[in-house]
Structure formats: structure tokens, C-alpha cells
Amino acid sequence: MKIQSLFLCGFIAATLATRGFALTTERAVTLAYVHEHPEEWSVKATEKESGLIQFTVVRTLSEPKYLVAHLAVHHAGKLIATSDTPLFAKKKGNTFYFSISAEDIAESKFDLSESGLGSTVNGVEMDIPVVGSNVYQFRLLDFIPEDVLKPGPGK
Fold this sequence. Notes:
Blueprint: H1 2-18, E1 24-29, H2 31-36, E2 41-47, E3 52-59, E4 65-75, E5 78-89, E6 94-101, E7 109-115, E8 117-121, E9 124-129, E10 133-138, H3 146-149
Parallel strand pairs: 1-10
Antiparallel strand pairs: 2-3, 3-6, 4-5, 4-7, 7-10, 8-9
């Protein structure tokens, strides 16, 4: 019985040592972080004539990845719209655009999930998202220029 238990423990240890576990990490992307990493990120918010705030989020990568942009728009405490946009991303120019009413920005959320690529199926290299990801969470209010949210003439 002891030999079987020892064998089972050895088998489990060997299996765990050779398998990668899926790990999802979450990271807040702040205005300061974007300024510290301009080679990786660009986030711009501008007010349009319609009164909506247009966001442009650019992710520059060191290697191709699989990205999924998640947008959740909340109004008066209720979820009113969602959008999930997947992308097999290249190294440069991975740009996401969206617009939100100024009154909904504080409650709304934008996240960008990033996963590695690569797998071999029957000896053929394929771009398949690998398990595990980094989820970059944006507090949209941080990226709004001060003059945009201040009440003024015509607002």
C-alpha cells in the first residue's frame, strides 16, 4: 500500500511540475501608468459635438497576442450595454474606439484581456490563444481632461 501511495504522490508531483496552470491577473491601468509606459499604451478621451466622450485606447505589443476588449456601460446603477471585441493583435496599432455619455463614465468599465498565442496541432504551428491572461482594467474617469467634465457655457 505504501508503494502505491508513493507512486501516486510521485505521479501527481510530476504532472503538476510539467503542467502550466491557467492564471488570470488583473491590473489597474491608471493615467500615471500610461504616462510611465508610452511604448505600450496610449489612451485619449475627447468630447464630441454630440456631447459623448470618445475614447481611443491603443495597445502596442512586443509580440502578437490575443486581445478581447470588454466594455460595460452603466446608467443610473443599471447595466445598459455591453460589447466584447476579440482581436488577433499585431505588434503595433491595436486600437479600440468607443464613446460614452459623460454622465455614464464614472460607472462604466473598460477592460482589455490579453493572452499569449501559439500552439501546435498535428505538427502545424497555429495562432491559438493560450490559457491564462492579463486583464487590464481602466477607470475611465481618470482619462477625462478636467475641462470636459466641468459644467460651462452651453453644457
